[in-house]
Every structure is written in structure tokens, then in C-alpha cells.
């Protein structure tokens, strides 16, 4: 038996969620006395690749084909599947990130595998049954699913599993995977970032605001707080619908799902559709003047107060320290 982990990078650096997935895959390999191979795609330095060994990869496959510099769903799925076949991997693990959520079902088809998307715990393997706990209904419930196929694909919910050091002396092997023209029907030519902004889906800290802020002219304090914390800014749906903020900042069931270590919700009521996008945040802080606001039911810390008083005080306190 063998386990393969797809190690996703952002501009040549592995994300924390990737190391979580490596640790998770290491634990599955240990459960089964199996080898763990990590596969990386794109332009990643050897120093960075070696970090995969720090968290338990026995072997590192590096796919650095020029055509795969930027993420292309179909092509990435094909070469990961090729790597899995080459390694004889029965289980493929990846992070349930934006790209992971597109890759998992494609890998399922290519490997004839059962797929669990959004796993939150290690598989249970008893009496020949292989079951995995996962999120369901946009994070409002859990489901236990059984995988009956020989090959299995598991995408791990970010922040659901701890990064665990388990250093190995892994070799880096260049894998010159074949890239088919039919997999490159859509090519990502360039990613143009909004100037100096922290990317919302990958942010460790998110400062988000809702209709309680009354209008777009009041976002200065949200941006200042975000800059001080090195955070991304986000908003609720009505805020982006009203054009106060760009749609790319809209978080929730119909927007982006985030999983930061810290989510600060300012003037957001906590509607179920908003919570669907933030439920895997590690710590939620709510600032709302209504003590009955539903956001307080999910918040780890709550401040009942007027955002226009609380946020400037928070900014001043952070500046003092
Ligand atoms: P409100 O619900 O109006 O809440 C504003 C809050 O600000 C209140 O709790 C109020 O007490 C507080 N407040 C007011 N003044 C202050 C002040 N001075 N200081 C502090 N607090 C103050 N919503 C999303 O966000 N994301 C989604 O993806 C999404 N998808 C949806 C999909 C569907 C099919 C539907 C029907 C709805 C969806 N919604 C979504 C909308 C959702 O139901 C809510 O309407 C929305 O989240 C509310 O946004 P809000 O919290 O900014 O505004």
C-alpha cells in the first residue's frame, strides 16, 4: 500500500494547509505501514520541497513542466493521477482548497476512486471498513462516509488537522509527466494581484464587515485594522451586492469559503448563509451592537458594542503594542 499527497503551493511556497495535508497523509501511511510520496507541481525550490520531508514525506516528486507553471484543473488532475499510478498509490490526499475542490472529483474519475471531500478527521479502519468523517451542508453538520473502492481520494478541510513534524530523509525526484494538449484547453496566462492585498482564500487572519457599517465610506477603519494585522478584508453578501465592496470579498455559501486562524466579523448578523463560509475558522471574534445577533452563537469571543467605537479603540490598542 502507498499514499500520495498533492502538495499545493502558492507562488513557490507551500501553504500551511499543505503541511496539514502532509501530516494527515503521514498519519494514514503510518496506520497502514505505507510509504508516503509527495507530489509538487510548478516552480518550487529544492529548499522548499525539502520542507515536505520535515512533515513526513518519504519521497518527493517534482513536476516542473513549463506548461504547468500556473494551475490548470484538468492538466493538474491528469499529472497527479499519473504520479499516483507510478507510485502505486491507493490513497491520494490533498487539501480541500479552491483548487483541491476542483481536483478531487477529477482524480476520483481518473483513478476510479471513491472521493471524500472536506475530511475533518483521520479515517477509521475497522473490520475491513474504511470510513471518514467530513463536513456536510456547508459546514453545518458532519457526515460519516464509507469508501468501498480500492483507490481513495481524500481532501482535507483546512484547519481540521494539526501540522506535525515527522522528519524523513526524502529524495527529490524529477517527474517528467506527460501533459496532453487536450488537458490544456484552458490556460491560465497570468494572475494579477490587487496591489499589496492579502489573498482572501489563503489568509491566516480575515477582517470582515457587514451592513452594520452603514456605507462604503466607513471601510477605512476595516482596511486599517486589516493592514495592522496582516489580514485580508472580506464582507457579507449584501455589502458586495450593494457595490460597497468588490464581489471577490464576499464570504459565505454563495461566496468564498475561508478557514483562517482568526475571523473578525464587524457589524455582521451571522445569517446561516454567511456562517457556511466561515465555519472552519479557528477563532471567530464578533463585534456587534445587538447582543442577540446570531453571530454570537458561533463566536469564540464577542464584543457587544458600536463598531464605530470598538474598532478605532482596537486599532489604537494594537498600535500601542
Ligand atoms: P444584516 O443582517 O443587516 O446585519 C447587520 C448587523 O450589523 C446586525 O446584526 C446589526 O446588529 C449590526 N450592526 C448595526 N449597526 C452596528 C454598529 N454600529 N456596530 C456594530 N454592529 C452593528 N450572506 C452572506 O454574507 N454570504 C453569502 O454567501 C450569502 N448567501 C446567500 C444565499 C441565499 C440563497 C440567500 C437567500 C441569502 C444569502 N446571504 C448571504 C444573505 C444572508 O441571508 C444575510 O442577509 C446576510 O448575510 C446579512 O448580511 P449582514 O450581516 O451584513 O447584514
Automatic annotation (TrEMBL):
Keywords (A to Z) from UniProt: Electron transport, FAD, Flavoprotein, Transport
Domain Electron transfer flavoprotein alpha/beta-subunit N-terminal: 3-188
Record carries keyword Protein transport: no
A Pfam family: ETF_alpha
PROSITE patterns named in the record: ETF_ALPHA
Protein family (similarity comment): Belongs to the ETF alpha-subunit/FixB family.
Protein's name in the database: Electron transfer flavoprotein subunit alpha/FixB family protein
Organism whose genome encodes this protein: Mucilaginibacter antarcticus
Top-level taxonomy: Bacteria, Pseudomonadati, Bacteroidota, Sphingobacteriia, Sphingobacteriales
